[in-house]
Each structure stands twice: as C-alpha cells, then as structure tokens.
Q: What sequence folds into this?
C-alpha cells in the first residue's frame, strides 16, 4: 500500500510538471498586454510604423516589435516560433495553409486591410513621366534603354508584383538593378536623370509627412495609362482616389497574417487595422482602406438664433 501511494505521488508530480512545462508554450499576451514580434514587408514601413505608434499609445502595456524586410523573408519568419504575425502583399497559398495546419494543428488567419500601389518615380529633370503599360514592360525587359531601380532583389513584393502583373512570364533585362530598400530607390532617382524607380505608394504618397514632402521636391510621380476608363488616352498618378476608383493600373492589397488560435496581441493588432481607427490611419496615409468607406460628405448647417 505504501509503495502504491509513493508511485501515485510520483505520477501525479510528473503530471503537474508536464502541465507546467506545457503552459510555457501558451501565449500569455492579450490584445492590450504583452510583447509580439512581427515581420513587415519593407515597402509598407511608413504606414505600419504609424499604425504601431497609435496602437501602443492606446495600449501602453502592449509592445509590437517590427522587423522590416523582403516579402520572402517575412514568410520564412512566419515558420519560426518567434514570429506570430506578418504584413505582406498576399495571403497564404494552399500549400502554405497545409504546412501550418500540419505543424500547428490550425491554420493562421489572414485578411487584407488596405490597398497600396506600386509607384513609378523619376528624376525632376527626366523628360518622360507618362507611360503606357507596354512602355513599362519594354523598360523592365530591357528593350528600352532606361535604368530600372527596384527596392531589392527578386525576393521583394514589388519585384514579384511586376513579374506577375506586367512581365507575365518575361524576364527582367540587364538594365534592372536593385537598391538597398525603398528609401535608397528614392535617393538614387533624385541623383540619376535617366532612370525610373519602383516603390510602394506608402513611401511617396503621404502629403502630411515632412520627409515625403521633401522627397517629392527631388522626384516626380509618373502617370500610367488607365485601363478601366471608358475614355481612351487617360493617365493617372498613384493616389488614394485613383486606387479606389480603379484608375491606377498597379494597385496591390496589404495583408495581415496572424499565427494565433486565441485572441492574443497579434489578433488584437489585426483587428485594430481592420476597424475604424486603423482604417482612418490608412486613409490619412493616402492608401485606400479596404474595410470601411470613409468618404467625406458635404453638409449644410443653418444656425438658428
């Protein structure tokens, strides 16, 4: 009997130790408390930095530590235990969903929260700033002798987007070169007359940002042909309005992918981006909110004595 009691106590102790060890793997954060590491596509850096700043100011005990990198590196990070959220330009592919289902026993949740665009920028002294998509393709394939500057190598979402939307199977020409990031693209274009740069609108579209205002004095946004306009020969700059109404031909979504099966800090931040405050920040950053219609409406107010 004594031996049985000792054996029972040992088994019970092992059970509690096992439970305690297992509890360490459970996320301890909430939407308002804790620390989370996220990876963000570098082309979205300006607007996401603003989103994080506002979210943390409202939730002082929440800490979102963001790393900005190429899209392919963001997806690699998502496979690691340390990264629970990524913000990129696409959702999960079927095989990626299957991978996470097998690894985690659940699939990450994802949704798009805004629309960005790939903006074309040139030097202020450049003779050309109006292009058809056929001309852009000629530049990217090297048929036209213009240096094309990307925000990185073939791992970036900008490069992948251009491959899918414009090249459609064709390869880049030898005139296509990589910068160290979006800011480097802007700085290089500001110094190079016969070149064209490709960056996310988040870097060049915010009229309220002092740095972007300064950059726009050194570069120009290009106009691209409108493929959806009834009237032919119309061109549009990348902007909130041209994305919203489908005039600008190179829009792209901004996706959140969260690897949580409970309501943690990642889920809280994704919900924030999807709801009114987050959507207003996208709007103020001159991107197109995907979840809420925030159009201004004129009203007539008559004062009564």
A:
């Amino acid at each position: 009997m004594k031996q049985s009691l000792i054996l029972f106590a040992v088994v019970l102790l092992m059970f509690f130790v096992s439970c305690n060890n297992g509890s360490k793997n459970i996320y301890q954060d909430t939407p308002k408390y804790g620390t989370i590491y996220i990876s963000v596509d570098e082309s979205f850096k300006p607007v996401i930095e603003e989103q994080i700043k506002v979210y943390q100011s409202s939730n002082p005990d929440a800490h979102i530590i963001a790393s900005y990198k190429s899209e392919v590196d963001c997806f690699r990070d998502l496979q690691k235990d340390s990264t629970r959220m990524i913000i990129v330009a696409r959702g999960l592919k079927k095989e990626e969903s299957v991978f996470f289902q097998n690894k985690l026993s659940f699939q990450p949740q994802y949704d798009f929260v805004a629309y960005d665009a790939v903006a074309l920028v040139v030097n202020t002294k450049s003779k050309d700033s109006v292009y058809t998509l056929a001309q852009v393709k000629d530049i990217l394939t090297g048929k036209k002798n213009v240096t094309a500057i990307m925000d990185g190598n073939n791992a970036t979402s900008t490069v992948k987007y251009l491959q899918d939307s414009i090249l459609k199977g064709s390869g880049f020409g030898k005139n296509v070169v990589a910068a160290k990031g979006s800011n480097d693209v802007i700085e290089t274009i500001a110094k190079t007359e016969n070149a064209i740069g490709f960056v996310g609108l988040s870097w060049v579209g915010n009229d309220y940002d002092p740095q972007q205002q300064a950059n726009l004095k050194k570069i120009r946004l290009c106009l691209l042909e409108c493929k959806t306009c009834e009237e032919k020969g119309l061109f549009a700059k990348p902007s909130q309005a041209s994305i919203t109404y489908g005039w600008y031909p190179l829009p792209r979504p901004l996706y959140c992918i969260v690897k949580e099966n409970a309501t943690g800090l990642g889920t809280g931040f994704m919900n924030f981006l999807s709801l009114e405050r987050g959507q207003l920040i996208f709007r103020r950053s001159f991107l197109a909110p995907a979840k809420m219609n925030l159009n201004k409406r004129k009203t007539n107010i008559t004062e009564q004595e």
